[in-house]
Amino acid sequence: MFVRQWPPVASEDSTLISLVEKASEGDRRSVGRLLTLVERGGDSAEQVAEATHTLSGKSHVIGITGAPGAGKSTLTACLARDLAVSEYKPAVLAVDPSSPLTGGAILGDRVRMEEASEAGAFIRSMATRGHAGGLALAVPGMVRVFDAFGFNPIIIETVGVGQVEVDVASAADTVVVVVTSGWGDAVQANKAGLLEIADLFVVNKADRPGASDARRDLELMIDLSQLTGQAVRRPEIVITTATEGEGLDEFKKAIFEHKELLFEGEQISIRRSKRWKAEVRSRLDYLLSEVAKESIENLEEEKSSSPGSVARKIAKNLLKKDELR
What pLDDT sits at residue 219? Predict the structure, then answer.
């Protein structure tokens, strides 16, 4: 029998090594515990990243985003359920907003996606923990865990707080933007960055008045973007009513057609290279912010100087450069 060879884990922690081995054998509880380690961050998260990095990159990652109330969770649940009963091994990472006061989150997607879970999909909820853009720093690492242990496709459902979560584009191969009738004018949509990130638009809740108007507005936006050269590929528009199951076959077909397009050429390599760089940048921003916090703890003797000059002095010391431009 073929035994998958895992890279050595840079740790003496036998528990972590055991979790990796059990997860490679299909133990979902161990996968869940590894996801928890990644979400918590710290040294254990880095060790999990080292153990899974070279084994990832095989799964198709789908990002589903949109404004609150657009029906993202219902659409995600239907897609995951259909994939699970079609002999795929889907995983869903549902990102919920954290309270700005308590830091807590509802994490209710497991309830909403009960049918998908019963069909075999792995459902995992996590909190944003205040990270700007709605995507937590841990998301790429958790996607890698799913990827390394054979889950495919992986669906990221992001929070929709205010405007569309543009950050999802840096974490997914195929980006789905969900809108509804009465979703707002084309100007607001452009401000939210819809055209820049969407590979596929879904006009959900099509049983409500105004769905055709929403589609017309999207078509006009896409036409304008084609003229100005903003869009690389014309996004397809699918009409659905997820609660009734209408349009779901077309939705799934559009996703797989986009996947085929990506994997036929160099687009998938280009996107994943950008994703890797985006994660490096995000982690670098985090590390620098932590160092900056430590650097400003004791600045009483510098109060006679302006904040700008003090900040530049600290930056010079941190970066070990003679000049900052």
Answer: 86
Number of domains in the chain: 3
Q: Which pTM was predicted?
A: 0.82
Nearest CA to 169 out of 197, 201, 128 is that of: 197
Q: Which of 80, 60, 67 has the alpha carbon at shortest distance from 251?
A: 80
Range of the domain at 126: 57-264
Together in a domain, 4 and 115:
no
pLDDT higher than threshold 90 for residue 134: no
Rounded Cα gap, residues 49 and 37, in angstroms:
10
DSSP 174: E
Please report how many Cα atoms fall inside a 13 Å half-sphere around the Cα of residue 42, on the Cβ side: 8
Is residue 271 in some structural domain? no
Instruction: Give a yes or no: residue 240 inside a domain.
Output: yes
Chain segment 22-71, per-residue pLDDT in tens: 999 999 999 999 999 988 888 888 888 888 888 888 899 999 988 777 88
Residues 6+ apart with CB under 8 A from 202: 66, 75, 176, 177, 178, 179, 237, 238, 239, 240, 251
Q: Is residue 325 included in any domain, yes or no?
A: no
Per the model's pLDDT, the better-predicted residue between 274 and 147 turns out to be 147
Number of Cβ within 10 Å of residue 34's Cβ equals 28
